[in-house]
Design a protein that fits this description.
Shape: globular
Membrane topology: Multi-pass membrane protein
Protein name: Glycosyltransferase RgtA/B/C/D-like domain-containing protein
Radius of gyration: 26 Å
Strand order of the largest sheet: 4-3-5-7-6
InterPro entries: LipidA_mod_glycosyltrf_83, RgtA/B/C-like
Structural class: alpha/beta
Keywords: Cell membrane, Glycosyltransferase, Membrane, Transferase, Transmembrane, Transmembrane helix
Distance between the termini: 80 Å
Number of helices: 25
Largest sheet: 5 strands, mixed
Subcellular location: Cell membrane
C-alpha cells in the first residue's frame, strides 16, 4: 500500500506541475465517482429539493420561465437561475424519453455545479498558492460530506458555490497578484461570478464579497483593491444578468417577489430561527468535523498549519483567505437560523489553507509553539474518529430500524468506516493521507447514496405511495391527500394532487367518479362510513414509516373510491 501511494503521488505531482489539463481531468473523474452514484436512485427529498423540482416541472409544463410556482402558490424565495438550469436539463432529458418525474435531470445542475466549484478552486488559485497546493485543496473540497450531499440534491447551493469560488478567485487574483495584463480576466471572473450567484441565490454572494473586501481594505488600510475591481462600469455585468428577469417578475407579482425573498426569507432568517432551525452560536464549529468527513482529519489541522505557514511567506494570500472565512463565519454563527449548507461557501478557503499545510509542512523547533501547534491536530483527529465511528454505528442502526436487519450496504459502509478509523491514522505523510481520504470517500459515499439510502423505504412515504398506486394501474386517477402534505408527494403524483383535510377528502370523492384518497389509517373506517351512500371504498395498500420533515411516525392508507351506481344510472 505504501509503494502504491508513493507511485500515485509521484505520477500526480509530475502531471500537476506540467499539465493543467491532466490535473483537471483527474479532479473531474474524482467528482464523477463521488457525485454520480445515487443521482437517479435516491428518492425525492423533502422539503426544499422537492419544491425546487416541482416548481421546475411546472415551469417546463407551462412554458412560463418568469413566474415560479408550487402548484397554484407563488414561490418567491429565490431567484430564477437554478430553475432555468433545471428546466434546461429536464427538456433535454425529455427529448431522449426520460419522464418528468425522473429525479436525475433536476439534480444534474447541482452535480455540474459541485464539479465546477472543485475545478474553479484548482484553476483559479493555482498561481496564487501553487499548483500542488490548489490541487490538494480541490481534492479536499470534492471529498467533503457537505458538498457530496449538495451535489446529489436539486437545490441552489452547489451551483451557487461554483459561482462564488469563481468570484472569489477573480478577487484573489486582483489582490494577490495584481499584474496589469491579468486584471481584465480577473475582473471578468469576479463580476460574472457575482452576477451568476445573484441569479442563483440572491444576496449571499454580494454579502460575502463585501465582507472580504472590507477585511482586506481594513488590513491594508487602503481601498486600492476596491479601486482595482472597478465597480464602474463592471457593476453593469451583474445588473445586466439579473435585471430583465427581476423587472419582469416584479411587474408580474406587483412587487411581491422582492418583499417575499428579501424581507420574509432573507431577513427573517437573520432575525429569528426560521422553520425550527434555530441553534446557538458555535454550532457550526462543533459540527464542521462531521460535515467535512472524511477530509476533516486533514482539513482542520492542516488549515491551521497552512495559516501559520502562509503567514510567513504569503501574507496577502493569508489576508485574503482570512477575509473570505473569518467575518462571514462569525456572522453565520451569530445568525439564529442555522442549516449545515449555509457554511458551504466558507469551506474553500479552509481547503486552500489545508492545501498549503499539506505541501508546505511546519518545521517548528521544540518549544511552546510546537506543543501548541499539536493541539489542532489532536482535536481534528479526535473529531474525525468520532465522526467515522458515528457513521459506522449509526448506519447499521438505521438499517435495523428501517428494514429489521443490517443490509449488505450498511455492513460495507460500517466496515469501511471502521477500517478508515483503524488504519488511515497510521499513514504518516499528509499526501498519502489525502489519497486515502479520497478513496474512503468514494467507497463510503457511493454505497450510501446508491445502495443504502434509496432502500430505506420507511423514510420515503411519497415513493412508496406512488408505487402502491402504480402497481394497481391507477396512476391516471385524481389524487387527494389528507394529513401527509409533503412536497415530494406532489412531485411524485402530479401537480393536480389535492392537499386537503378529511372534509376535502369527502368533497374529492363526491366530485370524481373514481379517485385516489390518501388518509391516516385510523381514519379509514370513518371515511368509509361517511362515503357509504355515494362511493365504494377499496384499500389499495397501507404504508407505515417516518416523516423526517416533521420528526414523527406516520401510518397512511391508500384508498380508491368509486361512485355507487344507482338504479337511474343503470
Amino acid at each position: 500500500m505504501k509503494i502504491l501511494f508513493q507511485k500515485i503521488h509521484n505520477w500526480i505531482r509530475v502531471k500537476i506541475q506540467t499539465n493543467d489539463i491532466t490535473a483537471s481531468l483527474i479532479l473531474v473523474l474524482l467528482c464523477l465517482f463521488l457525485y454520480l452514484p445515487g443521482i437517479s436512485s435516491l428518492p425525492a427529498t423533502d422539503r426544499d429539493e422537492s419544491r425546487y423540482m416541482q416548481a421546475t416541472k411546472q415551469m417546463v409544463a407551462t412554458g412560463n420561465v418568469v413566474d415560479i410556482r408550487f402548484q397554484d402558490k407563488p414561490r418567491y424565495k429565490k431567484p430564477v437561475g437554478i430553475y432555468w438550469l433545471q428546466a434546461t436539463a429536464s427538456r433535454m432529458a425529455k427529448q431522449i424519453g426520460i419522464a418528468s418525474t425522473e429525479r436525475s435531470p433536476y439534480r444534474l445542475p447541482s452535480t455540474i455545479g459541485a464539479t465546477s466549484a472543485v475545478l474553479f478552486l484548482y484553476l483559479g488559485f493555482r498561481k496564487i498558492v501553487g499548483n500542488l497546493q490548489s490541487f490538494c485543496a480541490a481534492v479536499l473540497l470534492a471529498c467533503s460530506l457537505l458538498i457530496v450531499v449538495e451535489a446529489h440534491l436539486a437545490k441552489t447551493d452547489a451551483m451557487q458555490l461554483a459561482a462564488i469560488v469563481a468570484m472569489q478567485a477573480g478577487l484573489a487574483q486582483i489582490y494577490c497578484m495584481p499584474k496589469v495584463h491579468e486584471l481584465l480576466r480577473a475582473r471578468i471572473f469576479f463580476w460574472l461570478g457575482l452576477g451568476v450567484a445573484l441569479l442563483i441565490k440572491g444576496p449571499v454572494a454580494p454579502v460575502l464579497a463585501s465582507l472580504t473586501l472590507a477585511w482586506i481594505c481594513w488590513k491594508d488600510r487602503s481601498i486600492s483593491t476596491l479601486v482595482k475591481i472597478q465597480p464602474w462600469p463592471w457593476l453593469l455585468v451583474p445588473l445586466i444578468l439579473i435585471s430583465p428577469w427581476l423587472f419582469s417578475i416584479q411587474t408580474l407579482s406587483d412587487g411581491q417577489f422582492v418583499q417575499d425573498s428579501i424581507q420574509q426569507d432573507f431577513f427573517s432568517k437573520i432575525v429569528s430561527g426560521q422553520e425550527s432551525h434555530g441553534a446557538p452560536p458555535g454550532t457550526y464549529l462543533l459540527i464542521t468535523p462531521f460535515l467535512l468527513w472524511p477530509a476533516s482529519w486533514l482539513l482542520l489541522p492542516k488549515a491551521w498549519a497552512g495559516l501559520r505557514r502562509s503567514s510567513e511567506a504569503l501574507s496577502r494570500t493569508t489576508q485574503f483567505l482570512c477575509g473570505w472565512l473569518v467575518p462571514a463565519w462569525i456572522i453565520f454563527e451569530l445568525v439564529p437560523t442555522k442549516l449545515p449548507h449555509y457554511v458551504l461557501p466558507l469551506i474553500p478557503p479552509l481547503c486552500l489553507l489545508a492545501g498549503i499545510g499539506i505541501i508546505q509542512p511546519d518545521r517548528l523547533r521544540d518549544g511552546p509553539l510546537l506543543r501548541l501547534s499539536k493541539w489542532p491536530q489532536r482535536i481534528g483527529m479526535f473529531a474525525w474518529i468520532a465522526s467515522g465511528l458515528a457513521l459506522a454505528i449509526g448506519v447499521p442502526l438505521l438499517s435495523i430500524w428501517a428494514s429489521g436487519s443490517v443490509t449488505v450496504a450498511a455492513l460495507l459502509i460500517a466496515l469501511t468506516c471502521i477500517f478508515s478509523v483503524l488504519t488511515l491514522g497510521k499513514i504518516k505523510t499528509p499526501k498519502r493521507q489525502l489519497y486515502a481520504s479520497a478513496l474512503s470517500a468514494v467507497v463510503v459515499f457511493g454505497l450510501i447514496f446508491e445502495a443504502f439510502l434509496p432502500n430505506l423505504n420507511n423514510v420515503w412515504p411519497a415513493e412508496q405511495i406512488k408505487s402502491i398506486i402504480d402497481s394497481n394501474n391507477f396512476g391516471a386517477l385524481p389524487v387527494a391527500a389528507a394529513s401527509y402534505h409533503e412536497p415530494s408527494l406532489v412531485f411524485n403524483l402530479g401537480t393536480d394532487t389535492t392537499l386537503t383535510d378529511l372534509d376535502g377528502i369527502m368533497q374529492h370523492a363526491a366530485k370524481h367518479p373514481s379517485a385516489i384518497l390518501i388518509i391516516e389509517s385510523k381514519e379509514v373506517d370513518k371515511t368509509r362510513e361517511q362515503l357509504s351512500l355515494i362511493s365504494n371504498i377499496f384499500i389499495l395498500g397501507r404504508y407505515s414509516g417516518y416523516n423526517y420533515s416533521k420528526g414523527k411516525p406516520i401510518n397512511l392508507s391508500v384508498l380508491k373510491s368509486d361512485w355507487i351506481k344507482t338504479d337511474k344510472s343503470k
